[in-house]
Design a protein that fits this description.
It is a single chain. The chain has about 300 residues and is α+β, with helices and mostly antiparallel strands. It has two domains: about 5-65, no CATH class; about 120-300, no CATH class. It is built from eleven helices and ten strands. It has helices at about 10-30, 30-50, 70-80, 85-90, 95-115, 145-155, 160-165, 210-215, 220-225, 225-230, 275-290, and strands spanning about 5-10, 60-65, 125, 145, 170, 185, 190, 195, 275, 300. The strands form four sheets. The protein has a four-stranded antiparallel beta sheet with strand order 4-6-5-10. Strands 1-2 form a two-stranded antiparallel ribbon. Strand 7 and strand 8 form a beta hairpin. It is elongated and about 105 Å long. The protein binds iron/sulfur cluster (2 copies). One iron/sulfur cluster binds near residues 194, 197, 209 and 210. The site of one iron/sulfur cluster (SF4) has 12 residues, from loops.
Length: about 300
C-alpha cells in the first residue's frame, strides 16, 4: 500500500485563473454597473472554460510518498507491460509473483519427469463436466486436509471441530477433535453417496470441495493409459441407462469424459481441456494425495458413530 499526498497543476485550472485575474483587473478600472457586469460575465466564461476543457494530464505533478511504488522492471515482470493505473500497480505483489513462478517451474519439472508417455503430443483431453453427480455417488474415500477442512467449515459457517464431528467418518490425529495434530479426515457417506451431495445432485461445499474432487478425472490411475481413461467414460446404452448404477467397470461412470481411442492425438474439440491444465490438475492431485493414507496403511480412528 502506498501512502502520501500529491499536488497537480492542470492547464484547465490555469486558463480559469487567468480569466479570473483579467476580470478582476478590468473591473477595478470600471465603476458601477459596468464593473459588476464585466466581472460576472468574465467569471462565468472562465468557469465554463474550466469545466469544458477536457485536458486530463497535469503539466507537472509533485508526489511525496512514504513508501515507493514498484519499479517499472518489476511491473514488466508481473504483467508483461506497465500497469495503466495506480490501482493496478498497487495490486502487484512480488511475493505472489515469485510463488507463481516457482509453481510454474515445479509444474514444468513435473511434466518433464512424470507425465505419462502416451500423453506426449496431445493438445487436450476430451472432458466437459455435465454435472451429472455420478462421481459423488460411487463408493470411494474422499479425504480432506486441515486447510481444506478450515475452508469448508467457513463455507458452512461451522467451527472446524464441529465440521469434523458432523461430516468425517475417520480422522488421523492424536484425538478425535480437530487440533494441531490432525493430518486429514475422511468424509462419511450417506447411502452410497458422499455426505455433501444434496438432493439436486449438487455439492454442498462446491467452492471449497477437496483437491481430489476438483482434479477429477485427471488422476494418475485414469491418465496412465488410453485404456484406463476410456474405461472411466460413461458408455450410454439407451435401454439400460435408467437402471445402471452410477459407475460400473463395464459401463463406466463419468459422462463428461469422452473416449479417446477414436479421436486424433491432438484432440479435436474446442471443449477439450488443454494439456497444461490437465497436467496442473494431475500435479495438484499427486501433491495432495501424498499426504493421505494408502489402502494398505490406514490407521483410522472413527470420529463419527453414524458409520
Ligand atoms: S465433496 Fe462434493 S464434489 Fe466431493 S465427492 Fe462430496 S459431493 Fe462430490
Ligand atoms: S461424473 Fe463426470 S460429468 Fe458427472 S459430475 Fe462427475 S465429473 Fe462431472
Amino acid at each position: 500500500m502506498t501512502e502520501g499526498f500529491s499536488c497537480a497543476f492542470y492547464p484547465k485550472h490555469f486558463a480559469s485563473y487567468l480569466l479570473l485575474f483579467i476580470s478582476l483587473s478590468l473591473s477595478l478600472q470600471m465603476t458601477g454597473k459596468r464593473r459588476l457586469a464585466t466581472y460576472v460575465a468574465v467569471t462565468l466564461s472562465s468557469l465554463k472554460l474550466s469545466t469544458s476543457l477536457q485536458l486530463r494530464r497535469p503539466l507537472f505533478v509533485r508526489v511525496a510518498t512514504r513508501s515507493s511504488a514498484p519499479s517499472s522492471s518489476r511491473r514488466t515482470i508481473h504483467q508483461g507491460s506497465s500497469p495503466s493505473t495506480q490501482e493496478e500497480s498497487e495490486r502487484y505483489d512480488p511475493l505472489q509473483e515469485a510463488l507463481r513462478k516457482s509453481e510454474e517451474r515445479a509444474l514444468d519439472n513435473f511434466i518433464e519427469q512424470e507425465a505419462p508417455d502416451w500423453l506426449q503430443g496431445r493438445k487436450g483431453m476430451p472432458f466437459e463436466c455435465t454435472a451429472c453427480g455420478r462421481c459423488c455417488k460411487t463408493q470411494g474415500d474422499v479425504y480432506m486436509s486441515p486447510e481444506e477442512i478450515q475452508k469448508a467449515s467457513q463455507v458452512l459457517g461451522l467451527k472446524p471441530n464441529d465440521f469434523v464431528h458432523e461430516y468425517a467418518s475417520h480422522a488421523l490425529g492424536q484425538s478425535n477433535d480437530f487440533d494441531e495434530t490432525t493430518t486429514w479426515i475422511r468424509l462419511r457417506e450417506e447411502g452410497q453417496s458422499c455426505v455433501f451431495l444434496d438432493g439436486d445432485g449438487k455439492c454442498g461445499i462446491y467452492e471449497a470441495r477437496p483437491h481430489q474432487c476438483r482434479t477429477y478425472p485427471f488422476w494418475p490411475n485414469l491418465l496412465k493409459s488410453a485404456k484406463s481413461w476410456d474405461e472411466e467414460c460413461r458408455r450410454k446404452d439407451e435401454d439400460n441407462e435408467s437402471t445402471l448404477p452410477p459407475w460400473t467397470p463395464v459401463d463406466g461412470g463419468c459422462e463428461g469424459m469422452k473416449t479417446i481411442e477414436t479421436l486424433p492425438m491432438d484432440g479435436g474439440s474446442e471443449t477439450d481441456v488443454p494439456m497444461r491444465e490437465v497436467y496442473r490438475q494431475l500435479f495438484e492431485y499427486v501433491t495432495s494425495d501424498k499426504r493421505f493414507p494408502k489402502d494398505t496403511e490406514r490407521p483410522l480412528s472413527p470420529t463419527n458413530k453414524q458409520e
